[in-house]
Write a structure and sequence with these properties.
Helix 2 crosses helix 3, helix 3 runs parallel beside helix 4 and helix 5 packs across helix 7. The chain has a domain of about 220 residues: Rossmann fold (3-Layer(aba) Sandwich), CATH 3.40.50. The chain is an alpha/beta fold and about 325 residues long. The relative contact order is 0.13. It is globular, with a radius of gyration of 20 Å. The protein has eleven helices and 15 strands.
Length: about 325
Protein backbone atom coordinates (compact mmCIF):
# COMPACT_ATOMS: atom_id res chain seq x y z
CA UNK A 1 0.00 0.00 0.00
CA UNK A 2 1.22 3.50 -0.85
CA UNK A 3 0.57 6.00 1.94
CA UNK A 4 0.78 9.79 1.69
CA UNK A 5 1.79 11.48 4.99
CA UNK A 6 1.27 15.24 5.20
CA UNK A 7 3.30 17.14 7.78
CA UNK A 8 5.90 14.41 7.48
CA UNK A 9 8.63 16.39 9.28
CA UNK A 10 6.44 17.08 12.30
CA UNK A 11 6.53 15.15 15.55
CA UNK A 12 3.76 12.73 14.58
CA UNK A 13 4.80 12.40 10.94
CA UNK A 14 8.46 11.72 11.68
CA UNK A 15 7.50 9.08 14.24
CA UNK A 16 4.78 7.31 12.25
CA UNK A 17 6.71 6.93 8.98
CA UNK A 18 9.19 4.34 10.33
CA UNK A 19 6.27 2.30 11.69
CA UNK A 20 4.48 2.36 8.35
CA UNK A 21 7.67 1.26 6.60
CA UNK A 22 8.16 -1.58 9.08
CA UNK A 23 4.67 -2.77 8.14
CA UNK A 24 5.74 -2.99 4.49
CA UNK A 25 4.06 0.14 3.14
CA UNK A 26 5.47 2.58 0.60
CA UNK A 27 5.47 6.09 2.07
CA UNK A 28 5.31 9.53 0.46
CA UNK A 29 6.15 12.45 2.76
CA UNK A 30 5.29 16.11 2.23
CA UNK A 31 6.31 19.03 4.40
CA UNK A 32 7.32 22.66 3.96
CA UNK A 33 10.38 22.04 6.11
CA UNK A 34 13.19 19.56 5.76
CA UNK A 35 13.37 16.74 8.25
CA UNK A 36 11.14 14.03 6.82
CA UNK A 37 12.63 10.70 7.99
CA UNK A 38 14.97 8.93 5.59
CA UNK A 39 12.70 5.88 5.73
CA UNK A 40 10.20 7.67 3.45
CA UNK A 41 10.38 6.36 -0.11
CA UNK A 42 9.52 9.72 -1.69
CA UNK A 43 9.88 13.17 -0.12
CA UNK A 44 8.36 16.38 -1.43
CA UNK A 45 9.42 19.61 0.25
CA UNK A 46 6.73 22.11 -0.57
CA UNK A 47 3.48 23.80 0.36
CA UNK A 48 0.44 21.53 0.43
CA UNK A 49 -1.64 24.53 -0.62
CA UNK A 50 -0.04 24.36 -4.06
CA UNK A 51 -1.87 22.19 -6.56
CA UNK A 52 1.37 20.99 -8.17
CA UNK A 53 2.66 19.65 -4.85
CA UNK A 54 -0.59 17.81 -4.16
CA UNK A 55 -0.79 16.31 -7.65
CA UNK A 56 2.77 15.00 -7.57
CA UNK A 57 2.46 13.61 -4.06
CA UNK A 58 -0.90 11.90 -4.68
CA UNK A 59 0.29 9.95 -7.70
CA UNK A 60 -0.53 6.25 -7.12
CA UNK A 61 -1.49 6.78 -3.46
CA UNK A 62 -3.95 4.47 -1.68
CA UNK A 63 -4.21 6.10 1.75
CA UNK A 64 -3.71 9.58 3.21
CA UNK A 65 -2.54 10.34 6.75
CA UNK A 66 -3.38 14.05 7.00
CA UNK A 67 -1.30 15.41 9.89
CA UNK A 68 -0.25 18.85 8.62
CA UNK A 69 -1.73 21.83 10.46
CA UNK A 70 -1.02 25.33 11.70
CA UNK A 71 -0.76 25.31 15.48
CA UNK A 72 0.78 27.75 17.94
CA UNK A 73 -0.48 30.16 20.58
CA UNK A 74 1.44 33.17 19.31
CA UNK A 75 2.19 34.73 15.95
CA UNK A 76 -0.54 33.01 13.90
CA UNK A 77 -3.63 35.02 12.96
CA UNK A 78 -7.12 33.58 12.58
CA UNK A 79 -7.06 33.74 8.77
CA UNK A 80 -3.94 31.57 8.71
CA UNK A 81 -5.53 28.94 10.96
CA UNK A 82 -8.58 28.72 8.70
CA UNK A 83 -6.55 28.64 5.51
CA UNK A 84 -3.99 26.07 6.64
CA UNK A 85 -6.33 23.79 8.60
CA UNK A 86 -9.56 24.13 6.65
CA UNK A 87 -9.01 25.40 3.12
CA UNK A 88 -5.92 23.28 2.45
CA UNK A 89 -7.79 20.24 3.79
CA UNK A 90 -10.67 21.05 1.45
CA UNK A 91 -8.29 21.18 -1.52
CA UNK A 92 -6.62 17.93 -0.54
CA UNK A 93 -9.97 16.16 -0.22
CA UNK A 94 -11.07 17.41 -3.65
CA UNK A 95 -7.89 16.19 -5.34
CA UNK A 96 -8.01 12.84 -3.55
CA UNK A 97 -11.64 12.24 -4.52
CA UNK A 98 -10.82 12.86 -8.17
CA UNK A 99 -8.29 10.03 -7.89
CA UNK A 100 -10.67 7.71 -6.00
CA UNK A 101 -8.50 7.83 -2.87
CA UNK A 102 -10.99 7.24 -0.07
CA UNK A 103 -8.92 5.85 2.83
CA UNK A 104 -7.97 8.49 5.42
CA UNK A 105 -6.55 9.19 8.84
CA UNK A 106 -7.20 12.77 9.90
CA UNK A 107 -5.61 14.40 12.93
CA UNK A 108 -8.11 16.74 14.51
CA UNK A 109 -7.69 17.87 18.12
CA UNK A 110 -9.51 17.98 21.43
CA UNK A 111 -9.42 21.74 20.78
CA UNK A 112 -12.38 21.12 18.44
CA UNK A 113 -14.35 20.25 21.59
CA UNK A 114 -13.16 23.17 23.69
CA UNK A 115 -11.83 23.13 27.29
CA UNK A 116 -13.81 22.12 30.37
CA UNK A 117 -13.66 20.76 33.89
CA UNK A 118 -15.83 17.68 33.38
CA UNK A 119 -14.50 14.75 31.29
CA UNK A 120 -16.18 14.64 27.88
CA UNK A 121 -16.41 11.82 25.39
CA UNK A 122 -16.76 11.77 21.61
CA UNK A 123 -20.53 12.33 21.96
CA UNK A 124 -20.09 15.70 23.67
CA UNK A 125 -21.04 18.81 21.65
CA UNK A 126 -18.22 20.61 19.84
CA UNK A 127 -17.66 23.99 21.49
CA UNK A 128 -14.22 25.15 20.33
CA UNK A 129 -12.57 28.15 21.92
CA UNK A 130 -10.55 30.08 19.35
CA UNK A 131 -9.65 29.85 15.68
CA UNK A 132 -7.46 26.74 15.93
CA UNK A 133 -10.19 24.59 17.48
CA UNK A 134 -12.86 26.03 15.20
CA UNK A 135 -10.78 25.33 12.10
CA UNK A 136 -10.35 21.71 13.22
CA UNK A 137 -14.05 21.34 13.94
CA UNK A 138 -14.94 22.62 10.47
CA UNK A 139 -12.34 20.34 8.87
CA UNK A 140 -14.00 17.37 10.60
CA UNK A 141 -17.27 18.43 8.98
CA UNK A 142 -15.62 18.27 5.55
CA UNK A 143 -14.89 14.59 6.13
CA UNK A 144 -18.41 13.95 7.43
CA UNK A 145 -19.87 15.49 4.26
CA UNK A 146 -17.42 13.43 2.20
CA UNK A 147 -18.57 10.22 3.89
CA UNK A 148 -22.20 11.06 3.15
CA UNK A 149 -21.38 11.46 -0.56
CA UNK A 150 -19.04 8.46 -0.92
CA UNK A 151 -20.26 5.32 0.92
CA UNK A 152 -16.97 3.45 0.45
CA UNK A 153 -14.99 6.24 2.10
CA UNK A 154 -13.23 5.41 5.39
CA UNK A 155 -11.77 7.98 7.78
CA UNK A 156 -10.34 7.62 11.26
CA UNK A 157 -10.52 11.00 12.97
CA UNK A 158 -8.24 11.18 15.99
CA UNK A 159 -8.54 13.96 18.56
CA UNK A 160 -5.40 13.89 20.70
CA UNK A 161 -4.72 16.24 23.57
CA UNK A 162 -1.35 18.01 23.93
CA UNK A 163 1.23 15.76 22.26
CA UNK A 164 4.66 15.63 23.86
CA UNK A 165 7.80 13.51 23.79
CA UNK A 166 11.39 13.45 22.56
CA UNK A 167 11.76 15.81 19.62
CA UNK A 168 8.72 17.95 20.38
CA UNK A 169 9.00 21.54 19.24
CA UNK A 170 9.98 24.47 21.44
CA UNK A 171 6.56 26.11 21.06
CA UNK A 172 4.71 23.17 22.63
CA UNK A 173 3.39 23.55 26.17
CA UNK A 174 5.18 20.61 27.78
CA UNK A 175 8.50 21.68 26.19
CA UNK A 176 8.08 25.18 27.64
CA UNK A 177 7.16 23.84 31.05
CA UNK A 178 10.13 21.47 31.27
CA UNK A 179 12.59 24.15 30.17
CA UNK A 180 11.14 26.76 32.55
CA UNK A 181 11.52 24.37 35.48
CA UNK A 182 14.93 23.23 34.34
CA UNK A 183 16.16 26.83 34.00
CA UNK A 184 14.71 27.96 37.35
CA UNK A 185 12.29 30.28 35.53
CA UNK A 186 9.05 28.69 36.74
CA UNK A 187 6.71 29.94 39.43
CA UNK A 188 3.38 28.23 40.02
CA UNK A 189 0.43 30.40 39.04
CA UNK A 190 -2.90 29.63 40.69
CA UNK A 191 -3.88 26.60 42.72
CA UNK A 192 -2.74 24.00 40.16
CA UNK A 193 -5.99 22.02 40.27
CA UNK A 194 -6.82 22.28 36.56
CA UNK A 195 -6.97 18.87 34.85
CA UNK A 196 -4.41 18.66 32.03
CA UNK A 197 -4.74 15.69 29.71
CA UNK A 198 -1.63 14.90 27.66
CA UNK A 199 -0.69 12.43 24.92
CA UNK A 200 2.78 10.90 24.77
CA UNK A 201 4.02 10.49 21.20
CA UNK A 202 4.63 6.72 21.31
CA UNK A 203 1.12 6.20 22.67
CA UNK A 204 -0.38 8.46 20.00
CA UNK A 205 1.36 6.53 17.22
CA UNK A 206 0.25 3.20 18.68
CA UNK A 207 -3.34 4.44 19.00
CA UNK A 208 -3.35 5.76 15.42
CA UNK A 209 -2.14 2.49 13.90
CA UNK A 210 -4.44 0.42 16.12
CA UNK A 211 -7.51 2.32 14.93
CA UNK A 212 -6.43 2.46 11.29
CA UNK A 213 -5.79 -1.27 11.11
CA UNK A 214 -9.33 -1.85 12.43
CA UNK A 215 -11.02 0.82 10.32
CA UNK A 216 -14.38 0.38 8.63
CA UNK A 217 -16.48 2.35 6.16
CA UNK A 218 -17.53 5.83 7.18
CA UNK A 219 -16.23 8.08 9.95
CA UNK A 220 -14.73 6.69 13.16
CA UNK A 221 -13.93 9.44 15.66
CA UNK A 222 -11.84 8.84 18.78
CA UNK A 223 -10.34 10.98 21.51
CA UNK A 224 -6.88 10.00 22.68
CA UNK A 225 -5.37 11.04 26.03
CA UNK A 226 -2.96 9.21 28.32
CA UNK A 227 -4.23 7.74 31.55
CA UNK A 228 -4.30 8.46 34.40
CA UNK A 229 -5.14 12.12 33.87
CA UNK A 230 -3.42 14.61 36.18
CA UNK A 231 -3.69 18.13 37.52
CA UNK A 232 -1.15 20.82 36.67
CA UNK A 233 0.11 20.52 40.26
CA UNK A 234 0.84 16.82 39.76
CA UNK A 235 2.52 17.38 36.39
CA UNK A 236 4.74 20.13 37.80
CA UNK A 237 5.69 17.96 40.80
CA UNK A 238 6.61 15.07 38.48
CA UNK A 239 8.86 17.25 36.34
CA UNK A 240 10.67 18.72 39.36
CA UNK A 241 11.21 15.24 40.77
CA UNK A 242 12.50 13.75 37.52
CA UNK A 243 14.86 16.69 36.99
CA UNK A 244 16.17 16.16 40.51
CA UNK A 245 15.25 19.72 41.49
CA UNK A 246 13.69 21.06 44.67
CA UNK A 247 10.42 22.83 44.05
CA UNK A 248 10.12 26.34 45.53
CA UNK A 249 7.12 27.03 47.72
CA UNK A 250 6.25 30.39 46.15
CA UNK A 251 2.91 30.58 44.35
CA UNK A 252 1.51 33.57 42.43
CA UNK A 253 -2.22 34.35 42.62
CA UNK A 254 -3.88 33.98 39.23
CA UNK A 255 -5.23 37.53 38.97
CA UNK A 256 -1.87 39.06 39.87
CA UNK A 257 -0.15 36.93 37.22
CA UNK A 258 -2.67 38.04 34.60
CA UNK A 259 -1.97 41.69 35.43
CA UNK A 260 1.76 41.15 35.06
CA UNK A 261 1.26 39.25 31.82
CA UNK A 262 -0.76 42.13 30.39
CA UNK A 263 2.43 44.20 30.38
CA UNK A 264 4.22 41.43 28.48
CA UNK A 265 1.36 41.30 25.96
CA UNK A 266 1.68 45.03 25.28
CA UNK A 267 5.44 44.70 24.90
CA UNK A 268 4.98 41.76 22.51
CA UNK A 269 2.63 43.83 20.35
CA UNK A 270 5.16 46.63 20.18
CA UNK A 271 8.30 44.55 19.64
CA UNK A 272 7.05 41.41 17.88
CA UNK A 273 8.90 39.31 20.47
CA UNK A 274 7.31 36.04 21.62
CA UNK A 275 7.65 36.42 25.39
CA UNK A 276 7.41 33.19 27.44
CA UNK A 277 4.68 34.67 29.66
CA UNK A 278 1.44 35.90 28.12
CA UNK A 279 -2.05 36.35 29.52
CA UNK A 280 -3.33 33.67 27.12
CA UNK A 281 -0.75 31.12 28.29
CA UNK A 282 -1.51 31.81 31.95
CA UNK A 283 -5.22 31.42 31.30
CA UNK A 284 -4.63 28.22 29.36
CA UNK A 285 -2.40 26.78 32.09
CA UNK A 286 -5.20 27.29 34.61
CA UNK A 287 -8.02 25.98 32.42
CA UNK A 288 -8.95 22.29 32.58
CA UNK A 289 -8.72 20.22 29.40
CA UNK A 290 -10.48 17.11 30.65
CA UNK A 291 -11.42 14.42 28.10
CA UNK A 292 -12.69 10.86 28.34
CA UNK A 293 -10.74 8.47 26.11
CA UNK A 294 -12.47 5.31 27.29
CA UNK A 295 -13.91 4.56 23.82
CA UNK A 296 -10.56 3.57 22.29
CA UNK A 297 -9.76 1.46 25.35
CA UNK A 298 -13.12 -0.27 25.08
CA UNK A 299 -12.02 -1.21 21.55
CA UNK A 300 -9.12 -3.11 23.15
CA UNK A 301 -6.32 -0.53 22.90
CA UNK A 302 -3.78 -0.60 25.71
CA UNK A 303 -1.51 2.38 26.28
CA UNK A 304 2.03 1.01 25.77
CA UNK A 305 3.95 3.68 27.72
CA UNK A 306 2.98 4.80 31.21
CA UNK A 307 3.06 8.41 32.39
CA UNK A 308 6.21 7.99 34.48
CA UNK A 309 8.19 6.39 31.65
CA UNK A 310 6.89 8.96 29.15
CA UNK A 311 8.11 11.87 31.25
CA UNK A 312 11.43 10.12 31.98
CA UNK A 313 12.11 9.65 28.25
CA UNK A 314 11.09 13.22 27.43
CA UNK A 315 13.19 14.81 30.16
CA UNK A 316 16.17 12.63 29.22
CA UNK A 317 15.88 13.96 25.66
CA UNK A 318 15.76 17.54 26.96
CA UNK A 319 18.89 17.07 29.02
CA UNK A 320 20.74 15.61 26.03
CA UNK A 321 19.49 17.82 23.20
CA UNK A 322 18.21 21.18 24.48
CA UNK A 323 20.86 23.69 25.50
Amino acid sequence: MKIFVTGSAGLVGSNIIPHLKNCGHEVVGVDRQGGTPDEADHVFQGDLAEKRVREEALEGVDTIFHLAAAKDDWGIDDDTFFFENLEVTRRLIEDARKRDIHDWVFYSSVAAMGPGDEPRSEEAPLEPNGAYGTSKMKAERLFQEYAEDVPEMSCVILRPSIIFGPGHFSYTNVHRLIEAIRGNRFLMVGEGQAIKTTSYIENVIAATLYLWERRSKGIQTYIYVDEPVRTTEELVDDIYRLLGKRRPGVRIPLQLAKSIAWVADVAADWTGINFPITAARIEKFNTSTNYDASAIREEGFEQPVGIEEALQKTIKWHLEHVN
